[in-house]
Amino acid sequence: MEYLGIEPKKARIGVFDFTCCEGCELQLANKEDSLVDFLALVEVVNFREVSSDRGQDYDIALIEGSISREDEVERLKQIREKAKILVTLGTCACFGGVNSIKNRFDIDDVVSEVYGKNKVETLPVRKVSDIVKVDLAIPGCPVSKSEVERIVVNLVTGAAVNLPKYPVCVECKQKGNTCVVDLGEICLGPVTRAGCDAACPTGKTGCLGCRGAAEDANFDSLREILREKGHSDEAIDERLRFYNAFSEELKNEG
Ligand code: SF4
Ligand code: SF4
Ligand code: SF4
Hints:
With 254 residues, the protein is α/β, with parallel strands linked by helices. The protein folds into 2 domains: 11-157, Rossmann fold; 168-253, no CATH class. It contains 11 helices and 5 strands; from the N terminus they run βααββαβααβαααααα. Strands 2-1-3-4-5 form a 5-stranded parallel beta sheet, sandwiched between helices. The longest helix has 13 residues, at 70-82. The chain is globular, with a radius of gyration of 20 Å. The model has no long low-confidence stretch (mean pLDDT 91). The protein binds iron/sulfur cluster (SF4) (3 copies). One iron/sulfur cluster is lined by residues 168, 192, 196, 198-200, 207-211. The site of one iron/sulfur cluster has 14 residues, from helix 1 and helix 4.
């Protein structure tokens, strides 16, 4: 849109994928109802899923996926050098995500089991912030498309960026859901950051914690309640470790 005959400069965005399923990128690319408005505000210069352009002059880099190869480490560092703002997009990039399950096993055993004699390089999975400075993290598996667009618009316009600090239970109760813990499920809603509109409990499945920890999350109370409901420590820990999204909090717990 022109103002006084001048086209204002749009923020340039690059979207880059690493070890992941590309589901978070797909969320963005799929959003046809708001795509036109979104593209009026930004210029996408590099986004492999939607364009053949490979521009290197981006202001904001959205990083999807965790890091599990040496060439990914180098590519990530190069992107960091070019980007003014680097944002992690999705649970894999923010926490390691489901890929982190591999870190529980002997990597050499896994590689030989899956690939036989074929050589493949695979390192223990790391989150993006283990390697470069991250300016902003947008969690979710996948991310919420409306949340990403709102945050990008805020970044471009200089408005404050806020993620909910309260837990998924708040959104779940607002929706009038029956608590799935009362139906015998393990649900991490009490300790997980809201923002997904309680997607899993609304679908009658317990939260797996893909958005990481809510503010002041009380893991001891969660364990106590779930034990009272008859769940084993092993099952509770398995759920808490699924996305590697609570590793910092659980480490501090001792
Ligand atoms: S966070 Fe989930 S949806 Fe996004 S890339 Fe990782 S596995 Fe896929
Ligand atoms: S179903 Fe999960 S998110 Fe919903 S109220 Fe129960 S514990 Fe909280
Ligand atoms: S309910 Fe939990 S696992 Fe499901 S999308 Fe929300 S934060 Fe992620």
